[in-house]
Design a protein that fits this description.
Radius of gyration: 22 Å
Largest sheet: 6 strands, antiparallel, barrel
Structural class: alpha/beta
CATH architecture of the largest domain: 3-Layer(aba) Sandwich
Shape: globular
CATH class of the largest domain: Alpha Beta
Number of helices: 8
Order of helices and strands: EHEHHEHHEEEHEHHEEEEEEEEEEE
Strand order of the largest sheet: 12-15-14-13-16-17
Length: 370
């Protein structure tokens, strides 16, 4: 059935080909690029990202080549509030944020869908590598893994609402990246066909998170101690916000074993470190859970992913409240990090996901919570 679909076009190869595939399928297609928040130096230093000009220019060129209408949406104020301010607040509270997921939840889907409806479109589409399904019994929509395991993005889509999923197309779910690049070449989309994937956070071109938080949010460079959990002082640092759980580089402390960051304590400006076995944990709480397919039982088994590049692992889950779950991995996993997302899978289907809260630390070498 022919539908009016607005495609979120970043200026990259994925969203460009997504628009082309929907056009080939007979839909009425248009494109729009989201203008996000830019710091004082972002636009000039990071023109390939969504806060720069090259993305807009490339997306417009693709729209012209496909013969579709095109807009640029200014979401700078909303992006600043929901993504950038959240990012800084999480670091300053000793947690590790995931701004891309926050952007998906608030900007790239919810706000984009709202604007698309105002323009008279039935649905929206993006170039994410993930599938979209609907449960025959409950009628609930759900995200599932994409065909290309190296590019699968189902993990970052867990916060989407049922209303968003009901009005969403994900055309790349059953393609591999190589096929998408070949399709772009066949369509003569020369501005994007060989364009490399973005690796950095769009509003931090240098990837220097600590300097960004210091410059934009006034985080103080204040000396504090680096110690073990047992209280042994090993050295000093110049600001707890410069460290995240599992980090090894940048400590600058000579030791007989490699040291890793175990946690940061904002209230005392301390960085707690330990050896590799101490970075592994099994049990933790997940808060603000968004369900696609909520299990009927309070206790159930699932595979859980705690980072986008983490290999999902078997775990026992207990629903404590509607939006809170306790998780125990079968085997300890490296760097279970408060502030990051935990996503629950049953086969290729995403059951739901939420944000990692408290972690019960393991006894080194035994995998038992202490």
């Amino acid at each position: 059935m022919r539908q009016k679909i607005l495609v979120a076009m970043s200026g990259g190869v994925d969203s460009s080909v997504a628009a082309a595939l929907l056009l080939e399928a007979g839909h009425e297609v248009a494109g729009a690029t989201i203008r996000t928040w830019a710091s004082n130096t972002c636009a000039s230093r990071n023109t390939r990202a969504c806060c720069g000009l090259t993305g807009v220019e490339d997306a417009r060129a693709v729209a012209d080549r496909l013969g579709i209408r095109y807009w640029v949406f200014n979401f700078e104020e909303e992006f600043k509030r929901h993504v950038v301010d959240y990012f800084a607040a999480e670091y300053l509270s000793g947690r590790t944020p995931n701004p891309c997921i926050a952007c998906n939840e608030h900007i790239k889907f919810r706000l984009f869908l709202k604007r698309a409806r105002q323009l008279g479109f039935d649905r929206i589409a993006t170039g994410h590598y993930a599938g979209l399904g609907r449960d025959e019994t409950s009628g609930s929509y759900f995200i599932e893994e994409g065909k290309d395991p190296a590019k699968d993005q189902s993990y970052v889509l867990f916060p989407l609402s049922q209303d968003t999923l009901a009005h969403l197309h994900l055309p790349l779910g059953f393609y591999e990246k190589a096929e998408i690049r070949e399709k772009a070449r066949a369509l003569s989309l020369v501005s994007v066909s060989e364009k490399p994937d973005s690796q950095e956070i769009c509003f931090i071109p240098s990837n220097d998170y600590a300097t960004f938080v210091e410059r934009e949010f006034g985080a103080p460079k204040k000396e504090g101690i680096v110690r073990t959990r047992e209280g042994e002082i090993l050295g000093t640092h110049s600001g707890y916000h410069q460290f995240t759980r599992g980090q090894r580089r940048g400590l600058g402390i000579p030791h007989k074993e490699r040291l890793y960051v175990l946690e940061t304590l904002p209230e005392t400006n301390e960085v707690i470190v330990g050896t590799k076995p101490e970075v592994f944990d099994r049990e933790f709480a997940v808060e603000r859970v968004n369900w696609f397919l909520r299990p009927s039982e309070t206790n159930f088994r699932a595979q859980v992913k705690i980072r986008s590049q983490h290999e999902r692992s078997q775990a026992s889950l207990e629903i404590l409240e509607e939006n809170k779950v306790q998780i125990i991995f079968d085997e300890p996993q490296e760097a279970v990090t408060p502030g990051q997302a935990a996503v629950f899978y049953e086969g290729p289907k995403v059951l739901g996901g939420g944000w990692i809260g408290s972690v019960r630390h393991c006894e080194p070498g035994r995998g038992e919570a202490i």
